[in-house]
Design goal:
This protein has 1131 residues and is mainly β. It has six domains: 9-208, no CATH class; 222-519, Rossmann fold (3-Layer(aba) Sandwich), CATH 3.40.50; 529-692, Jelly Rolls (Sandwich); 698-743 and 759-843, Jelly Rolls (Sandwich); 861-1028, Jelly Rolls, CATH 2.60.120.200; 1035-1131, Macroglobulin (MG2) domain (Immunoglobulin-like). Helices cover 10% and strands 35% of the residues. The chain is built from eleven helices and 65 strands. Strands 1, 2, 3, 4, 5, 6, 7, 8, 9, 10 and 11 form an eleven-stranded antiparallel sheet that branches. It has a seven-stranded parallel sheet with strand order 13-14-12-15-16-17-18, sandwiched between helices. Strands 23, 25, 28, 30, 31 and 33 form a six-stranded mixed sheet that branches. A hairpin with a 5-residue loop joins strand 61 and strand 62 (1084-1089). The radius of gyration is 45 Å and the shape is elongated.
């Protein structure tokens, strides 16, 4: 692009200067002009070249035809809604008059029809041009001075416009057409009254813009909006990079005036009239010429206007755009001609009330075959119907750019259509451009917005001509400004960012779009394609096949050892000697971006794919590292991993599942963005891409079962292990190892460990995927067989990331006996996830290592958590453990230490440890309210003799009922195992429940506490245990039913006992008690009694001296009662 030295063009800007002016009256011709700033005078010099006017809506430029003035444009005054009907202008004399003549001219102009105010212009001490508006800003000395402000407004015929909502002592006033003095002099007089803290006239300054010398550029608000910088397309910044040279933009419209003085230099010698099928194009009106000027009027030629792409080539394709016969269908020929004649962009500021297949086909041809197969960029006006839907053809296909219109305030133009197909908006209200007869003129409509987008497409292609049409569309959409104060949201079918029904992706941004275009890779632009895996790169030889991007702020650096800055970056590589990093020292901060592009990776033969790499992000002002993937040649990039901020002074490794791209050719890129200082040196190393083996089947319905009756079902072998699992029925081929039959059905899966499958060989069997996203309390059970003198190891693992990483769930090794065993694995931690399982069998040092699995089941349990190993204990020392509240009941159980909150009820301390669970019975938890505390699931499969022990406390004058219940059907029905009603004792009382009738089943327990009519009903439980009895204990339990818990006056604990047992007789009303311990033959093996009538509440029995087995405890009292209890002594 050429380097230009451009004369400065003066543009309107508005500046609120918070100081006070003192100005000598215009009418008296005094030579001194000045203003006050913080009480001091600042001088001004009269500028007789220009003056400022505000005019009423009906003003006609012809009213000033008798004055020798240069061309000027009127702009709407949008500073206050109340005066939005006014317009203003800066007007320049053709020849600057003398001071005296200057004021005569201003007085005469002031008397002209529909002129509201006329004010002189000045130069500041540093030469800045200053103009006057009608506004004055006055600051009160106190809130009570408002009355004085009203007086001054009346005195000088001013309007009080508004109070500043942020600074309430400041008020805005405005001169009227009846004000006798300029706003400068009025502000001066108000300040000199010494009644106000400040009086500030509104001064307008001119910004010097080194952009283009086209004289009417200041009126092209769409390219540079000095009133609202957020409502233009940032053309000047884009022109610093490109002006669209070499790109052919066709205007399919009413024809371009090919000899127009501001267009001719950019007009292509090729043109076409669709209706006559001849060249050159014809003229049917000035609509096409106006559109052409917005696209490509010549820049820097000191003539009229400038287009958004001032060095592009304009191609005229004419059509009457009328309803004449064959006119609409002939527009299709325009697209086809454009394809054949090398057009890159087709701008269409027209619509049709009827859809045509022939037009659709022509558009499709241009989109598909234009630009040598890269596709033309087709831009259409959204239509001026003020509503929805968009006009045809703009709504024909998503490959078209449909363009709406905005005003100079950034708001949607009222006429602009809205709807789901709208892509972007551009300036379209009051747009100045070229018209016929070498003229310029204003037009409004989405027709005027469309050529802005067509010109932007030319700028984009000029910096990256190998982009596809869709890439250009994406760049325009992704780079658009979220302007106008509208709400933009993520929208289905709109992948290029947030979107709005009225504004599409927003207002186009030429500068941002050109920058983005420079960073986008062209389709198929990789220099190298990798198709063999695993792949690795550690930057030991330069950057390998990775490449720097040319469209970013700076380059990645390859390095060994420490980076050049302290307290940031790694001190060595993660792998080998070298790594790639972001050198963030100045000028590479703040917020600068660098991009490192990978080669292409052909994943067409991959089952699944995992990317792993090491990263290092150490530094107090660490920025952001982003890994992105493109599967369309760099058109779109998707972030697959991102991290920001200091991560510590170490290398970390991350695995990224990119299996979604299997079957595609992809490209990766690392995007590093620095933060606010040099301590943002981020690095990557040890990049690897490996094939994974994700499951081919997704199980979504449960319960699920697999017994290998039909092959391996949905389970699959892994090709990368040492050998395969086998499926068989009956015995395995080797003696003294493996099962002799299946656990369920006829077949099972097993590890055939005969040579060459030992020693230390591994085989893996992968499950299908299990979708647990809607499952609660999932549980896995399976049968396993591990019999053999040199038995190896069987492991069960789970993956939640498509097989990238695996977590061990269960493992067994060594000989487990010649029988099938059952394992139960709680999968509740994976509820809500999609998981995959795998069995890993590892042989030992001989053939006797045939391990097997069968009868695999995944069910959803009725309870959270599962108990599978015994003894199981719970004393509520850590929350409620895996017990849970029943939220459907009246209130919850409470966990507590020490006393409960009410007097004369509840325990003073826990029976075991510090904590216990109790029912807080204070209001509103009485009267007759219930609380349920549910156990986890308890898996008693494989068990035969089971005892549930617990301690309870029931003290209180209005004590309710405590019950223990069991369910075997998921809570549908509950059976009562234990129940107590009313006050029991001031102490903790033990209880034992025989669960043997439920052996082999999955059960759940619950405690039910019910209050009655008072607060003294704080019942409590603690020190629970579930024990599985073995050996002699089993025979002793057979007649325990009804004995262990049916004698409320005698309690024995612990029971079963090992070292000792306590016989608790505290509830017996007797002062002489004897206790005898009898074996099962009736022989007394131990006795003890109270002495001399001294009451004893507990007897300690030294069971460690007893042989394991069952005993009868006989308790006698002098009141005549005899009570029997069973005691079990364990080994």
């Amino acid at each position: 692009m050429k380097t230009k030295m451009i004369p400065k063009r003066k543009l309107w800007g508005t500046l609120l200067l918070l100081f006070t002016f003192l100005f000598a009256s215009v009418s008296n011709g005094q030579s001194e002009y000045y203003y006050y700033y913080k009480g001091g005078k600042i001088g001004l010099e009269l500028n007789t070249n220009t003056f400022n006017v505000s005019v009423f809506q009906n003003f006609k430029k012809d009213n000033l035809r008798d004055f020798k003035l240069k061309a000027y444009n009127l702009d709407k005054d949008v500073s206050q809604q109340k005066v939005s009907s006014l317009k203003y202008a800066e007007i320049e004399f053709q020849v600057a008059p003398s001071d005296a003549e200057y004021f005569k001219q201003l007085d005469a102009i002031k008397k002209t029809q529909d002129i509201r105010t006329v004010y002189p212009s000045f130069l500041s001490e540093n030469g800045t041009e200053i103009g006057l508006s009608d506004y004055i800003y006055v600051k009160l000395q106190s809130a009570g001075d408002y009355r004085e402000l009203e007086k001054k407004a009346l005195e000088y015929d001013l309007t009080i416009v508004e109070q500043n909502k942020y600074m309430p002592l400041w008020y805005t006033l405005r001169c009227t057409e009846n004000t006798d003095f300029s706003s400068l002099e009025v502000a001066n007089r108000i300040f000199e009254s010494e009644l106000f803290a400040s009086s500030v006239p509104d001064l307008m300054t001119y910004d010097d813009i080194e952009c283009t010398n086209d004289p009417d550029f200041g009126d092209l608000w769409g390219l540079l909006n000095t009133i609202d910088p957020n409502a233009d397309v940032n053309a000047c910044d884009a022109w610093a990079i490109t002006e669209g040279n070499g790109i052919n933009v066709a205007v399919l419209d009413q024809g371009i005036e090919l000899t127009h003085i501001d267009l001719a230099a950019n007009i292509s010698p090729l043109s076409y009239d669709t209706e006559s099928d001849t060249s050159p194009s014809l003229i049917f009106g000035d609509h096409g010429t106006h559109c052409a000027g917005t696209i490509g009027a010549v820049g820097d030629n000191n003539l009229q206007v400038v287009g958004i792409a001032p060095e592009c080539t304009l191609v005229s394709i004419s059509n009457s755009l009328a309803g004449t016969p064959n006119s609409r269908q002939k527009r299709a020929d325009g697209f086809n001609w454009a394809v054949l004649n090398g057009v890159d962009v087709v701008s269409n500021s027209w619509s049709s009330g009827v859809q045509y297949d022939i037009i659709d086909d022509a558009i499709d041809n241009a989109l598909t075959n234009g630009r040598g197969g890269l596709g033309c960029i087709i831009v259409f006006a959204a239509g001026n119907g003020s509503g929805s839907p968009l006009s045809y053809p703009s709504n024909y296909t998503g490959a078209i750019l449909a363009v709406g219109s905005i005003t100079s305030t950034g708001a949607r133009s009222g006429f602009s259509n809205i709807g789901a197909e709208l892509d972007v908006v551009a300036p379209g209200s009051s747009i100045l451009s070229t018209v016929l007869s070498n003229g310029t003129g204003y037009k409004s409509g989405t027709s005027m917005a469309t050529p802005h987008v067509a010109g932007l497409a030319a700028l984009i292609l000029s910096v990256n001509p190998c982009l596809t049409g869709m890439q250009v569309n994406d760049i325009i959409e992704q780079s658009s400004q979220k302007s106008g104060g509208y709400t933009y949201v993520i929208t289905v079918g709109r992948p290029n960012g947030t979107w709005n029904n009225e504004m599409g992706y927003g207002l186009i941004d030429a500068h941002a779009a050109v920058l983005l275009a420079q960073s986008v890779s062209c389709a198929g632009s990789c220099n190298t394609t990798v198709a063999a895996f695993p792949y690795s790169e550690s930057f030991e030889t330069d950057l390998g096949d990775w490449e720097q991007s040319t469209g970013d702020d700076f380059d990645w650096t390859r390095h060994s050892g420490s980076t050049t800055s302290s307290n940031t970056g790694p001190s060595s590589a993660a792998d080998g000697l070298f790594y790639a990093y972001v050198e963030s020292s100045f000028p590479n901060y703040p917020s600068k971006t660098t991009i490192l592009n990978s080669p292409c990776f052909d994943l067409t033969g991959q089952n699944g794919t995992n990317l792993s790499f090491a990263y290092h992000m150490y530094g107090s002002t660490m920025g952001t590292l982003d890994l992105q993937v493109s599967s369309d040649g760099g058109i779109n990039w998707t972030s697959e991993w991102s991290l920001s901020g200091d991560q510590g002074d170490q290398w970390s490794t991350v695995n990224v599942d990119i299996s979604a791209y299997s079957g595609s050719t992809i490209q990766l890129r690392y995007v590093g963005t620095t933060s606010t200082s040099f301590r943002s040196d981020m690095a990557v190393d040890d990049i690897s891409i490996t094939e994974t083996f994700p499951c081919n089947t997704n199980i979504t319905s449960f319960p699920y079962s697999e017994s290998f009756e039909t092959d391996f079902g949905d389970w699959e072998q892994v090709a990368t292990d040492d050998f395969d699992w086998s499926r068989t029925s009956g015995s395995t081929p080797s003696a003294s190892t493996g099962p002799s039959a299946a656990a369920d059905g006829s077949f099972y899966a097993f590890v055939e460990s005969s040579f060459p499958n030992y020693p230390g060989k591994k085989t893996i069997l992968n499950s299908p995927c299990f979708d647990l996203t809607s499952q609660s309390n999932p549980n896995l059970s399976f049968a396993y067989h591990m019999y053999g003198a040199s038995m190896g190891k069987l492991e069960l693992e789970v993956s939640v990331d498509n097989g990238i990483t695996w977590i061990s769930l269960w493992a067994k090794k060594n000989d487990q006996g010649n029988q099938w065993l059952t394992a139960s694995v709680d999968l509740n931690a994976y509820a809500g996830s999609v998981i995959q399982l795998r069995y890993i069998g590892t042989t030992n040092n001989s053939f006797q290592s045939d391990m097997a699995v069968d009868d695999i089941q995944i069910t959803t349990l009725p309870c959270a958590g599962i108990v599978t190993s015994f003894p199981y204990t719970e004393s509520f020392e850590t929350d409620f453990g895996i017990w849970s509240q029943d939220l459907t009941e009246d209130f919850d159980w409470t966990r507590n230490s020490g006393s409960t909150s009410s007097v004369n009820t509840g325990p003073d301390a826990a029976n075991d440890g510090l904590w216990y669970a109790y029912t807080e019975s204070s209001f509103p938890n009485n009267p007759f309210k219930s609380a349920h505390l549910n156990s986890p699931c308890i898996d008693l499969s494989g068990q035969s003799t089971v005892v549930f022990n617990f301690w309870y406390h029931m003290l209180g004058a209005t004590m309710g009922t405590l019950a223990a219940e069991v369910t075997v059907d998921g809570g549908a029905t509950w059976n009562t195992l234990f129940i107590r009603t009313g006050e029991q004792a001031k102490t903790w009382i033990p209880a034992s429940i025989n669960l043997s009738p439920y052996a082999g089943q999955m059960i759940q327990l619950r405690f039910v506490g019910k209050t009655i009519n008072g607060f003294q009903s704080d019942m409590a439980i603690d020190d629970m245990s579930i024990n599985v009895l073995k050996g002699a204990e089993k025979s002793a339990i057979t007649d325990l039913t009804g004995v262990l818990s049916d004698s409320p006056h005698v309690n024995i604990y612990p029971n079963p006992a090992s070292d000792y047992a306590i016989v608790d007789v505290s509830t017996l009303d007797s002062d002489e008690i004897s206790v005898s311990i009898l074996d099962m033959l009736g022989k007394e093996v131990y006795s003890v009694s109270s002495v001399d009538g001294q009451a004893i509440s507990q007897f300690r029995i030294p069971t460690s001296t007893f042989a394991p087995g069952s005993y009868m405890v006989v308790v006698k009292s002098n009141t005549g009662g005899t009570f029997n209890k069973k005691l079990i002594v364990r080994e």
